[in-house]
Amino acid sequence: MTEHSATNADATTEPLLTGYPGRILLLILAGTVAAFVGRNIFGPLLPAIIETLGITSSEAGIALTVMWASIAITQYPGGLLSDQLSYKTVLVGSIAILSTGFVILTGVTTYVGFVFGLVVMGLGAGLFTPSSYAQLADLFEARRGQAFGLYTSAIDVGTSLSGALATLVLAVATWRFAGITVPTTWHVSFAPVVAVLVLVAATLHVGHRGDYDLDLGACELNLRETVARILGNPLVRWAIVAYVMYSFIFQGILGFLPAFLRFGKGYSQTFANNAFIGFFLVGAVVRIVAGYLGDRMRHLTVAIGAALLGMAGLLVLFVAQSTVPLVAGLGLLAVGITGFPPVVNAYLMGLFPDASMGGDYGGARTLLIFLGSLGPTYIGSVAQAFDYELAFAALLPFFLVSTVCLCWLRLQ
């Protein structure tokens, strides 16, 4: 199923932000920013959530692992349904589920309710991401790396805004709306997220040229063929191993960076949240640059460079005893963490057949996100047993394995 294909184009003639492809890209970017404000705000909010719900850091890590596992579960269905139904169906439907999860989170008061809201939100998020990648891969060919760079940059913009939103929400004692005064809690953070997602879904409903296709009975699972294409190709197989290592690192850092700075390094909550914002603002720029360089160099060359910088950043963070080296370490780690996805995603997409690209990519993401979802539990457990500094330093072996796999792939 192809609604619009960019074929026989080159980077000088293929439009990026104009025309119908540009409009769809911008809508996907807006939805991505909103979605990642909501799903990545838990790091800055984690101390408040732990206090409000009366849970431990280990329990918080388990909750985030459940969220990431939920995101992983629907990666393959998201890509598969994009291939066999339509991009419009899955994009709009996934945003509806995603919004429902955030609505649930606005009112939870128990740990069980919190986990349930994370599960619903995660299922919608898992459907949204592979369908977005598949839609963009269908719209762009010569500038696919740049389109993916903008898409993954939107992830970091959303993550940065999540830190700013968390800081604002926690800094204001009460909110007044329509003459009603209510005490501020972390629950308030999800209201603007839902508003933006609903607007994006409505605009996609009107502006997307595709049709809705709800004939789920006609869909074929094709799981065996998908697994064969993923695991039977050694290039795909080792790229996934490298990505699993990255996903483990990223999900752990995403959930616990502010806590690491607050409890591991002794900085204030304000500094920790501002550093979180800055970390992903750097990433928003790095992802675009990495995508651009990947289109002009080999994607794996850029990925290897990013992984090496990430390792250097973790080492600097571990030994840093003052603010200047700590900020330098955060900068290096931000480059390493965020420079990886646009180029490795573009590399992976190039290995899959066009007819099954969405499903194959979704299946690959199911593996890498599900296994990577153990990252927050790993960080939370090591931090509880020892300390946050050791927990972050213990991520170095995962960076090393990822780099070795990327180097092997680069030599093929």
Folded structure, characterized:
Helix content is 77%, strand content 2%. The two termini are 32 Å apart. It is globular, with a radius of gyration of 20 Å. The protein has one domain (19-211, 225-411): MFS general substrate transporter like domains (Growth Hormone, Chain: A, Up-down Bundle), CATH 1.20.1250. Strand 1 and strand 2 form a beta hairpin. The protein has a two-stranded antiparallel ribbon with strand order 1-2. The chain has 412 residues and is mostly helical. It contains 18 helices and two strands.
What would the keywords be for this entry?
single chain; 412 residues; mainly alpha; Growth Hormone, Chain: A; two-stranded antiparallel sheet; 18 helices; 2 strands; 77% helix; globular; disordered N terminus
Strand order of the largest sheet: 1-2
CATH topology descriptor: Growth Hormone, Chain: A
Backbone structural class = mainly alpha
Tell me the CATH architecture.
Up-down Bundle
Biggest beta sheet attributes: 2 strands, antiparallel
Number of strands: 2
The fraction of residues in strands falls at: under 5%
Total helical elements: 18
The domain tally reads 1
Q: What is the percent of helical residues? A: over 70%
The termini sit apart by 32 Å
What are the segments in which pLDDT stays under 50 over at least 5 consecutive residues?
1-8
